[in-house]
């Protein structure tokens, strides 16, 4: 056991995900030896993230204001909405620099075995956004696992009467892998979604 | 340090750490087994989509001790698909919710890990195959699976002879606590009187007479499902989480 404040710091750090007692101790001593300005910046960032960050009123992404950066940006195409499960997925799609539309974060996927049903996700908010007719395409970018597929099927059925163009992200072989290691489901999907090589 | 090889159905997956998952597999020879699949969530994982729920797989486990279940969780080292029922099930929301309820039921009836439950395993394989083929209504396939799961675990309800005194049927009253239909003499307070058609449907679901099942009316199917759910809940003591989503989706 260390002197009061040091032990308090170790205990607090130890409550973070993936940080055990030894790692907590190592981080605590790193902080003790670090430059005071660095430590102040870290403390400031921690306090600020809790104070300022909230969820965007439109898409459900993490935001600093009422609305997130994407929803505020007038250059983003309001006619296309990309539906994702988590705010982390927004970042993943943004990194591709391919997509210029807007997002909708569901907050998870339908998983009856875990007790998560359609009413526990932000599906009602999505349908409200689609109601005014500005959106012409809905891209379903839920995870390519079973729960994500089920959520996509459910959403596609819900919005069908609205007459939108509903698309699903392609699945197939990862770039840089070997064909022999591909599983049947993935390889089957890759065949389904094969494209014409126009040389 | 022992390797085990078995075939099984993936019942459930849970996230573990950065890129791993704990998969629950109902195997043919070792019953329900929980094992760690390292790196399965990475896009370039060698497991790919093989360890998703509803997959029928041939799997190799690596266990630390001489037993598959006991000293920590075994590792999945190699997996090959036998049949991927997932894609046929997930295409339709009613089939998906019915399928998840089957997986949860199978998990609940195989409480003891490592204890073989061959009948439950074979029943689940058959049920998932039927469900994925979309030959019959998803909710009826689920009800048939639930009734037969109850039967192989020793809780078979009676739909003809009285469950108490054995008086030959048809009998009018149905009591969950008494174990099925009861005669006028044996009826207990709280017994219900379902329609004769619903009783016939339940009997057909239990024995697998799909000719009768496929020609049933919606209201009888609905009444039958209610009785099956009540009967299952009584014997499992706790309700199934996924069952309430099945009921919702059937109304859509």
Automatic annotation (TrEMBL), chain A:
Keyword Zinc-finger listed: yes
Entry keywords, A to Z: DNA damage, DNA recombination, DNA repair, Metal-binding, Zinc, Zinc-finger
Family matches, as SUPFAM superfamilies: Recombination protein RecR (SSF111304)
Zinc finger (C4-type) residue numbers: 56-71
Keyword hit for Metal-binding: yes
UniProt domain Toprim: residue ranges: 79-174
One protein family per Pfam: Toprim_4
HAMAP family tied to this protein: RecR
Physiological role: May play a role in DNA repair. It seems to be involved in an RecBC-independent recombinational process of DNA repair. It may act with RecF and RecO.
PANTHER family named among the record's database cross-references: RECOMBINATION PROTEIN RECR
Family that this chain belongs to: Belongs to the RecR family.
Entry protein name: Recombination protein RecR
The organism of origin for this protein: Streptantibioticus parmotrematis
Lineage: Bacteria, Bacillati, Actinomycetota, Actinomycetes, Kitasatosporales
Gene: recR
TrEMBL record, chain B:
Residues annotated as transmembrane: none
Protein name: DNA repair protein RecO
Segments forming domain DNA replication/recombination mediator RecO N-terminal: 1-68
Stored Gene3D superfamilies: Nucleic acid-binding proteins (2.40.50.140), Recombination protein O, C-terminal domain (1.20.1440.120)
Xref: InterPro entries: ARFGAP/RecO (IPR037278), DNA_rep/recomb_RecO_N (IPR022572), NA-bd_OB-fold (IPR012340), RecO (IPR003717), RecO_C (IPR042242)
Family: Belongs to the RecO family.
Function: Involved in DNA repair and RecF pathway recombination.
Keywords, in A-Z order: DNA damage, DNA recombination, DNA repair
Pfam families: RecO_C, RecO_N
PANTHER family, alphabetized: DNA REPAIR PROTEIN RECO
